[in-house]
Amino acid sequence: MNKLIYEYLDELFPNPHCELKYHKDYELLIAVMLSSQTTDIKVNKVTDVLFKQYPTLKSLSQAEYKDIRDILLSLGMYNKKAEYVIKIALELTTKYQGKVLNDREVLEALPGVGRKVTNVVLGILFNEPYIAVDTHVKRIAIRLGIAEEKDNVYLIEKKLSKVVPDNLKVKIHFQFVLFGRYHCKAIKPNCSECKLKEICSYYKNKKSA
Ligand code: SF4
Question: What residues are labeled active site?
Answer without folding.
Answer: 116, 134
